[in-house]
Amino acid sequence: MDLRGKKIAVLVADQYQELEVWYPLLRFREDGAATVAVGAESGKTYASKKGYPVVADVSIAAVRVADFDAVIIPGGWAPDFLRQDERMVGFVREMDRARKVVAAICHAGWMLASADIVRGRKATCFKAIKDDLIHAGSSYVDEEVAVDGNLITSRMPTDLPAFCREIAKALARQPVAEAAGSRR
Asked: How far apart are the first and last CA of the chain?
């Protein structure tokens, strides 16, 4: 799918799940999108649950919702760190308010609950945090991918093909952001 002109933020923090960061980062570059690793600090190296590094391309302090077409929140334990940073929570909340793609996989449902954007919406997640989504007001479904408007959620790494397929479809339907910035 041709995603040239699209820009995707992938949120990163320590203890991320390897595939849930690297699969979308590389997959969407292959389709021509600019993918950007966004961390608390630009240039900082974040380690996955198994120690695999990812370097933040940009700090959350330097990003603007207007510059992105989508945000992807990976799982692992990273979402628990991400949601403790109000700038990260605010970015996800504002992306949702702007009706841009908000995609969360596995434990990333924690971020959706903290951003208060799942109330009354269909979503899925890793089974261990199902109750968190339900208590946040979500209509939980146990499916490989759940799509509710601009919100796209999946359960675990084996769901990545369906997760990325739905993200690509949603991005293809969106007009290119006016201030998408330079491509990587």
From this structure: 18
Instruction: State the chain's maximal CA–CA distance in angstroms.
Output: 40
Provide the sign of the torsion angle of the four alpha carbons 15, 81, 163, 64, taken in this order.
Answer: negative
Class of domain 7-173 as given by CATH: alpha beta
Show the DSSP H helices in the chain as ranges: 18-30, 78-82, 86-97, 109-114, 130-135, 160-173
Active site residues: 106-107
Region 136-160 average pLDDT: 98
- pTM, two decimals, is 0.94
CA distance 23 to 55: 15
Neighbours of 30 (CB within 10 A): 10
User: CA-to-CA distance for 57 and 142, rounded, in angstroms?
Assistant: 34
